[in-house]
Design a protein that fits this description.
Length: about 270
């Protein structure tokens, strides 16, 4: 895990080369490449995006462009559409939104999937791309490294802050909770609910199953509180005044709590 101002980047190194999950922003792409170079002199072979936010995909062009396509693999899309660098994998909704109106001009995914799960085999390890439907956005991917027992969770899980539910780009509170529950089904603790599977969040500290469970419980409790207030026909301002995140604001921040309340309210009101 490489932690930076744009969030966290996951790097897998091995016999085939380097796989990079979420190369962060354009501004830090060169420092990210320098850190990757310290881990392995091998070329970058694959880039994976867990979501479409600029702090996850901004470095796509520089990082993927510095890489080399691995011949003999599933490289048809990369060969046709890339400029000779490493292929970029993501859910198809990421490509749709990045290439649509208001999207970015470059660094688009070159190899997308639309099913619940896409399986790869890289560096002697099964790597699974699992779609979290309508969670942070409608294009979220959790990347599971099965032999090293690591999950790169993207913005489905951000233990240093309240989650962001991007309603304009297909996110929802119930989809986010479903994604967290899906993450809990993948992770396995080592002893007394500690250790075991390591989870690299989109932002925040390296975590394990217990951290994910605590976060899932917080999100579910806040959802249920707001759901009760919505059933009472309260307005958004009345819900905010009731402070349904009060006992968590000391951990995740009161200002972001207000934003989270509004996102949950609008998601449930739909």
């Amino acid at each position: 895990m490489i932690a930076g101002p744009g969030g966290n980047t996951t790097v897998q190194v091995g016999r085939d080369g380097v796989l990079v999950v979420d190369p962060q922003t354009t501004a830090v792409s060169q420092p990210i490449l320098a850190e990757i170079g310290k881990l392995s002199p091998a070329p970058i072979r694959y880039v994976i995006n867990t979501t479409l936010d600029a702090d996850h995909v901004g470095g796509n062009q520089a990082v993927a462009g510095s890489g080399q396509t691995l011949a003999g693999g599933n490289t048809r899309a990369a060969t046709v559409y890339s400029s000779g660098g490493a292929p970029i994998y993501a859910h198809e909704n990421v490509l749709k939104r990045l290439s649509g109106e208001g999207g970015v001009a470059s660094g688009w995914p070159t190899d997308t999937y639309f099913v619940d799960q896409k399986d790869l085999f890289i560096n002697g390890e099964p790597v699974q791309l699992i779609h979290a439907q309508a969670a942070h956005t409608d294009g979220d991917t959790m990347v599971v490294f099965r032999r090293t027992d690591v999950v790169s969770a993207g913005d489905v899980f951000t233990p240093d802050r309240y989650p962001v539910i991007d309603l304009q780009r297909g996110g929802s509170i119930n989809g986010l909770i479903a994604g967290l529950n899906q993450l809990l089904r993948i992770t396995v603790p080592e002893f007394n609910q500690q250790g075991g599977t390591l989870v690299v969040p989109g932002h925040g500290r390296l975590s394990d199953e217990a951290d994910v469970a605590d976060y899932r419980d917080m999100v579910t409790i806040v959802r249920d509180r707001i759901q009760d207030l919505v059933k009472r026909k309260m307005t958004l301002e009345q819900v905010k005044a009731a402070r349904p995140t009060f006992d968590y604001d000391g951990i995740y921040g009161a200002q972001k709590g207000a934003e989270f309340i509004e996102q949950v309210y609008r998601s449930l009101a739909r």
